[in-house]
Amino acid sequence: PTAEQWPGILEYSSFAWMKQHQHKFELQKVSPYPVLTPGGMIRKGAVGRAHEDGMSPEIAADVAARGRELLPDEAAFEWLYRGGALA
């Protein structure tokens, strides 16, 4: 992306923007079966606080294992899974 494109990218990928436009991200759009009630959230969007939302270490390990199957590059996985600097 160009320097001019980055502000838009960061805005549209922010939690605040996605929450403001949650109708675009509802799970009902991807599944014929109800997964969540409209406006419901799986997580609050805070890095490192999944345990507060009820994610057990076992669930976290399963999510990580599935993520590594999709993204085998360990450095990229760590950045995606744990967060990190953009540049």
SSE layout and pairing:
Blueprint: H1 6-12, H2 15-20, H3 57-70, H4 74-82
Features:
mainly alpha, 87 residues, 41% helix, 4 helices
Account of the protein in words:
The chain is mainly alpha-helical and 87 residues long. It folds into two domains: 1-42, no CATH class; 43-87, no CATH class. 41% of the residues lie in helices and 0% in strands. The protein has helices at 6-12, 15-20, 57-70, 74-82. 0% of the residues are buried. The model has no long low-confidence stretch (mean pLDDT 81).
Q: How many strands?
A: 0
Main sheet summary: none
SSE pattern: HHHH
* Nearest-integer average pLDDT: 81
- Structural domain count: 2
Estimated radius of gyration: 15 Å
Q: How many H/I helices?
A: 4
Task: State the separation between the terminal residues, measured CA to CA.
Answer: 12 Å
- Work out the oligomeric state of the chains in this entry: single chain
Poorly predicted regions: none
**Helix content percent band:** 40-55%
Shape: globular
Which structural category do the helix and sheet elements fall into?
mainly alpha
Strand content: under 5%
Question: What is the gist of this entry?
Answer:
By secondary structure, the protein is mainly α. It has helices at residues 6-12, 15-20, 57-70, 74-82.
